[in-house]
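Recall the central idea of this unit: under ordinary conditions, the amino acid sequence of a chain determines the structure it adopts. In this exercise we apply that idea directly, starting from the sequence alone.
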Amino acid sequence: MLPLCGDSPDASIALGAMAERGLRVLAVASRTLAGSEHVISPVDLETNLELLGLVGLQDPPRPDAADVIASCREAGIRIAMLTGDHPGTAKAIATELGLFGPSSMVVDGTDLPEDQEVLGALLDRDGIVVSRVAPEDKLRITLALQARGHVVAMTGDGVNDGPALRQADIGIAMGKSGTDVAREVADLVLLDDNFATIVEAVRQGRATFSNIRHFLTYHLTDNVAEMTPFVFWALSGSQIPLALGVIQILFLDIGTDLLSATALGAEQPEAEVLERKPEARHLIDRPLLTRVFGVLGPVEALMEMAAFFVTFLAAGWRPGDSFGEGQTLLAASGAAFTAVVIGQSANAFACRSATRWPGALGWTTNRLLFGAVIIELIFALGFLYIPFIADLLEHAPPTMAGFGVALLTAPAVLAADAIQKGVRRRMSQ
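Accordingly, the structure predicted from this sequence is:
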C-alpha cells in the first residue's frame, strides 16, 4: 500500500522497525472523493491515498516452537519457512525460533528465479526463509526440491495450497484452521495445528520403521537356521539326515517364534531415535542382509548343526559311519531343535536394536518380549518332553552332550551380535 500513498520515508522507517520486532504490519490509508467524482474500478480508486498509520500485530510462536526446530535439526530434517509476511518480519520470527542460522537467507517471493534448477539450488539449504510467497510458489518450490532428490513435506491450510499439498511427498493440512480443500488433498491432517505434533509423528514413524526391520532381522535369521539342515542333506546326497523336519519347522515358526516376533513390533522407541538419521530408506538393505546372512544366521545355524553332530559323536559315531535311523537320530534332531529355540530367544533380544547391546537396553525393559521368550521356552520343553508331541515331531529330548552345545547357542549369538555392532560403531566414527 505504501507506494500508493506517495513518498513516505517515515512510514518506511517505521515499517522496518516494526518488522524487525516480528510484528505483522498493516497499512491503513484513505482517499476523499469529491461529490461529483465517480470511480468505476478499484484500480482507479486506489490512487493518491493518504496514509493514516501502521498497525503492528503480534502473532508469537508457540512456547515450544524453538525446541521443536532444534529436534528437527537433530533428526536431520531441514526446515524452510514459507510465509506471506514482510521479509523483515519473517527474518525476525525465524531468528526467534532459532531457524535462521549462518547459512540461512531471506528470499522475497517476487525474486524467486524462474528456472527450476536454479530455484532448487537456491533453496536447498537449512533455514531458508521465503517471504511474500504466493501459493503457486509453494508448488514450484516443492517440485524444485523433489528434483534434487529430497523427500518434501509441505504444510498448508488454504484452497490455493491444494496443488502443493498434493504434489508433496507428504501433504500436511491444518485441521482447525485449514479449508476443506486442503484437508481433502492432504496425506495427513494435523488436528491440533501444532508443528510439534509433526515431529512426534516423525519420531513414531522412525520407531515403527525400525521395529519392522528388527522383526525382519529376527525372522530371516530363523529362516537361515531352518534351511541349513536341508542344505547339508542336499549337498551330502542325503547321506546326512535332516536335522529338522518340516513339521518341526512349522512348530518353530508358530509355537516358538510368533510371540517374540510380535513383541519386537511393540518395542518402545529408543531415546535417541530422533537424533539418529534413519538407518535406511528401504526395509531390506545391505546392512540388514549382512547382519542376517553374514553374522546372526550363520552362527545360529552352526550351533544347530554342532548340537546335531555332537550327539552322534557322543554316541560313538565317527566320520564315515552311517548315521542310522534309531534313537540317536531322534535325540540329535531334538538337540538341533533345542539349539534353534535357544538361539532365537537370544536373537530376539539382540534384534531389539541394530546398534546397542541388549544388556544396555535392559533385559526386562520390554516386558512383552521377556514374557514371550519365557512362554516359548516352556512350549519348547513341552514339544520335547510330552511323548505324543515329540512323536509327532519325530524327535526326542536331547542327550546331555547335545543339550550342552544347544545351551551355548545363546552366548554365541549374543557374542556375534556384540562384535558386529562394535565393528559397525567403529566404522561409522
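The chain has 18 helices and eight strands.
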